[in-house]
Design brief:
eight-stranded mixed β-sheet, binds flavin-adenine dinucleotide, globular, about 30% strand
Length: about 350
């Protein structure tokens, strides 16, 4: 079967792009999420930051109630493990079930797009077209060809590896565990401990569960994760008897070279392109924005050039976030900021 566009990956980036591009092009969306994650969804905190809320509002989309999960979150508790400083910062997040959120976004493209559940296992360039093979849940391999190939397949993108085989974006291993709530207060905490990771860990209340996770350097991530849990006992976190453990890669760009927009008929969007905040690892807003940008670019005469132009703001914003990183990740500076109480909320605790 020949399509104008094949999209690999049905997360926020792929689903957004497909919904919009499906209005003017024949689009096949291949998504492996049900096969890779079952009914659990992609490992994610499932928090829609103010940027993501804004981009959804701008697109005229409001998150359905059955996608939300309790509690809604209006501050971030920030812990610097070494100094013991704790601060709360006001920030409003919409707490969602990531699996239901993705399913909802895909449902919005049902009418204009062919959606296939499968994992892309082979990509070949054949003249001006791309030949794609994907394996479905029964292990059968199907094939399709297209004029444009869109990689919306997240941090470990096969499309990025096909288009840029030598690329080595900065990556971390992200691990999350789910724990049954034991009367704990609703919470989103962000945890800094430079002896464990030069990124961060977090805990998020999610319905009857608390999710604890973090992003760790690629060497010995599980040991780091376990050590972080031990350190957190000092702060009252009892993280025992997980009901689920999940793991995936997460990108953390630090320069323009860490963005991969695509070339020669291949386009990358969302995290596959490197669009994720290096300071907070928030990526849903950038996934949606880049999906929209590519749909607009494909309707133009020079789509690669247009896509570059239309993502200039996203890239600039992410580069600005790298300037914020030292205030969060350079320990002396972070402690100085936290000690000073700048921008922190009144409900601060210090110990
Ligand atoms: C642990 C963790 C917590 C996070 N928490 C948050 C948060 O709270 N808020 C936030 O804004 N961001 C968060 N992020 C970042 C956010 O998850 C990503 O930036 C965002 O999901 C990127 O969206 P995407 O559509 O580009 O890719 P993804 O959401 O990764 O979607 C990619 C899709 O492609 C599919 N896929 C992959 N390979 C193939 C293949 N070969 N064939 C077919 N399909 C394939 C996957 O199954 C998936 O459905 C978190 C990241 C991690 C790792």
């Amino acid at each position: 079967m020949f399509y104008d566009v094949i999209v690999v990956g049905g997360g926020p980036a792929g689903a957004t792009f497909a919904r919009l591009a499906g209005k003017f092009a024949r689009v096949l969306l291949i998504d492996g999420a049900p096969l890779r994650f079952g009914d659990k969804g992609k490992p994610c905190g499932g928090l829609l930051a103010p940027d993501a809320q804004k981009v959804l509002r701008k697109s005229g989309l409001s998150v359905p109630e059955d996608v939300l999960t309790e509690p809604q979150i209006d501050f971030v508790k920030t812990i610097d493990c070494k100094s013991g400083i704790i601060r709360n910062y006001e920030r409003t997040y919409i707490n969602v079930s990531r699996e239901r959120f993705d399913r909802w976004l895909i449902s919005l493209c049902d009418e204009v797009v062919t959606v296939a559940c499968g994992i892309c296992v082979n990509i070949e360039k054949q003249g001006d077209a791309f030949y794609i093979e994907y394996r479905n849940g029964k292990g059968e391999v199907a094939a399709a060809t297209c004029r444009y190939l869109v990689g919306a397949d997240g941090a470990a993108s096969v499309v990025r590896r096909f288009a840029f085989p030598g690329a080595k974006p900065r990556m971390y291993t992200s691990i999350q565990q789910w724990f049954r709530n034991k009367d704990s207060a609703p919470l989103y905490s962000c945890i800094f401990d430079e002896s464990i990771t030069d990124c961060c860990s977090w805990s998020i209340s999610k319905g009857r569960y608390t999710v604890f996770g973090g992003a760790y350097p690629m060497d010995m991530p599980m040991e780091r994760f376990e050590n972080q849990k031990k350190v957190l006992r000092r702060f009252g976190y009892i993280l025992e008897d997980p009901v689920r453990t999940e793991c995936c890669l997460v990108l953390r760009p630090r320069a323009e070279k860490d963005f991969f927009l695509g070339e020669d008929g291949v386009f990358l969007i969302g995290e596959a392109a490197g669009f994720v905040s290096p300071s907070s690892l928030e990526g849903i807003s950038y996934a949606i924005k880049s999906g929209e940008a590519l749909a607009n670019a494909l309707a133009c005469k020079a789509p690669h050039k247009s896509y570059r132009l239309l993502t200039a703001k996203i890239r600039a914003r992410l580069m600005l976030k790298t300037l914020k990183c030292p205030f969060m990740y350079y320990p002396p500076l972070r402690r100085f900021v936290m000690k000073s109480g700048i921008m922190s909320a009144k409900k601060d605790e210090n110990n």
